[in-house]
Amino acid sequence: MACVNGKCRLASSVRELREAGMDALRDGDVVGAEALLRRSVAMSEAGGGVSTATAHSVYRLGMALHAAGRQDEAAEQFEKALWLVRERAGCGSKLYRKILGQFAEVMPSRAPLCECDAA
Questions:
Q1: Residue 15: inside a domain, yes or no?
Q2: Least packed by Cβ within 10 Å: which of 36, 67, 72, 81?
Q3: Does residue 3 or residue 39 have the better pLDDT?
């Protein structure tokens, strides 16, 4: 991938924050995970990151919020991630199906029943 206007650096920083957030979540630090994932989302959005890359961070923020017991906020993040991916890659994309599957697993009553129902 060619680096243009710092986009490679942005993508790398976003990914590092996202991975650190997921490490924190695996270690049981839900508060720390949320903070890191919010920074990852904000950095990607402010820097004009690719919507699918932003969706990765948003989706994982939803996981952290779910772990914190904040179901309404978690559902909003899952829905936002689905929208971001759908706009860029479509409902049939692997990432869309992954997010939808995780949403259905952790919040079955809130997730759309099938692909593109979130549209």
A1: yes
A2: 72
A3: 39
Model confidence, pTM: 0.88
pLDDT-based confidence at residue 50 (cuts at 50, 70, 90): confident
Q: How many domains does the chain have?
A: 1
pLDDT in tens, 23-39: 999 999 999 999 999 99
How many Cβ atoms sit within 10 Å of the Cβ of residue 36? Answer: 25
Only one residue has tokens 């909003």, namely: 76
